[in-house]
């Protein structure tokens, strides 16, 4: 929980003075800042004498300017900044500590500067990393907060917990620019809002695109047959535009003993089906590899299952492609996927109700 401050010392952002003094808000001027004593961090006490520690590099929450400290704010309403440097003025009895911070701006703040910026396409916990710095009194800091980098193009994006700040864009004030572009890969070109959207993702290298569920439905990008759907999903290859096929297995191999299924053997040959081969791999792994890749409200949260499904498909392909030795997956396969993605019977029921989407670009199952 953010610390409750009893004093309000937060100022409008970017109030600078060139003199070796303080400006109207009490902020040290650049001249004064240059003479101040450097520190690695600082500590502050709340009204209950509880100690909060802040160090350089932390991302921290600051009570917004104009908000009385008695007001209860939701976490996502705080200002968010990265502590770059800490210095103090030592000539008082109690040193006056200031931090130079780099701001993570809220979508609302960006919209005040860029008229076309669509805040409806951002989540509540989303922040844009700005190129703007300020000096902030240590007394304005509430607590440190985790902030995750979110790269929508990554196939191995780590999970981001709910109610955690995240950043997927950088913001430059002069000239005003957001990078990467605040656009989506969907047919509608609108970006993904994790708070309200459910997205379906095609992992093929020339697609690598997420689509809003409602956009796919509206444009009728839906398969008509359920037959072979699981295998079509499994064969949608994150590393090749060609669908994964059993016949890429190569020449006929000897019978091989499996560690995975005691006493069982698998003899790959041209006339064995992919489905049959999958029986020799861990069921949980295959189930994850056969999931549609989704994210968002009904898609497993902010980053969804992209990382797990891609990792599972790669491990399945590798096992099926190996030209010698037992048909096996890495011993640590369970650590390389999120096992909670293995659908429970309840989740399987929910999944069965999702329309059978196909990719508007490659027409493959997604
Ligand atoms: Zn869309
Ligand atoms: Zn595609």
Automatic annotation (TrEMBL):
| Matches recorded under Gene3D superfamilies | 2.30.30.490
Source domain of life is Eukaryota
BAH domain residues = 52-182
Q: Which GO terms describe its molecular function?
A: chromatin binding
Q: Where is this region: Disordered?
A: 1-30
Annotated InterPro entries: BAH_dom, BAH_sf
Q: What is this protein called?
A: BAH domain-containing protein
Q: What is the lineage of its organism?
A: Eukaryota, Fungi, Dikarya, Basidiomycota, Agaricomycotina
């Amino acid at each position: 929980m953010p610390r409750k401050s009893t004093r309000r010392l937060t100022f409008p952002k970017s109030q600078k003075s060139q003199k070796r003094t303080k400006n109207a808000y009490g902020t040290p001027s650049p001249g004064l800042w240059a003479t101040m004593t450097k520190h690695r961090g600082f500590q502050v006490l709340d009204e209950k004498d509880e100690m909060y520690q802040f160090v350089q590099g932390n991302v921290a929450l600051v009570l917004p300017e104009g908000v009385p400290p008695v007001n209860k704010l939701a976490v996502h309403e705080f200002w968010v900044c990265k502590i770059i440097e800490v210095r103090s003025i030592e000539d008082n009895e109690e040193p006056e500590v200031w931090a130079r911070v780099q701001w993570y701006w809220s979508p609302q703040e960006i919209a005040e500067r860029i008229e076309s910026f669509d805040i409806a396409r951002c989540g509540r916990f989303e922040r844009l990393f700005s190129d703007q710095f300020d000096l902030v009194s240590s007394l304005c800091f509430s607590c440190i907060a985790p902030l995750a980098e979110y790269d929508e193009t990554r196939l191995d994006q780590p999970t981001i917990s709910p109610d955690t700040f995240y950043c997927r864009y950088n913001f430059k004030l002069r000239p005003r620019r957001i990078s990467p572009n605040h656009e989506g890969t969907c047919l509608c070109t609108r970006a993904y809002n994790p708070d309200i959207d459910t997205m379906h993702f095609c992992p093929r290298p020339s697609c690598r695109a997420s689509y809003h569920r409602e956009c796919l439905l509206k444009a009728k990008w839906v398969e008509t047959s359920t037959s072979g759907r699981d295998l079509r999903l499994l064969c949608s290859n994150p590393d090749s535009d060609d669908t994964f096929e059993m016949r890429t297995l190569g020449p006929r191999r000897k019978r091989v003993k499996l560690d995975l299924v005691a006493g069982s053997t698998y003899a790959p040959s041209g006339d064995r089906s992919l489905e049959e081969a999958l029986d020799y791999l861990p069921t949980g792994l295959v189930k994850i590899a056969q999931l549609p890749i989704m994210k968002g409200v009904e898609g497993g949260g902010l980053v969804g299952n992209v990382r797990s499904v891609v990792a599972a498909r790669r491990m399945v392909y590798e096992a099926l492609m190996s030209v010698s030795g037992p048909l096996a997956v890495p011993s640590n396969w369970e650590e390389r996927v999120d096992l909670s993605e293995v659908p429970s019977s309840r989740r399987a029921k929910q999944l069965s109700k999702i329309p059978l989407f196909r990719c508007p670009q490659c027409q493959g199952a997604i």
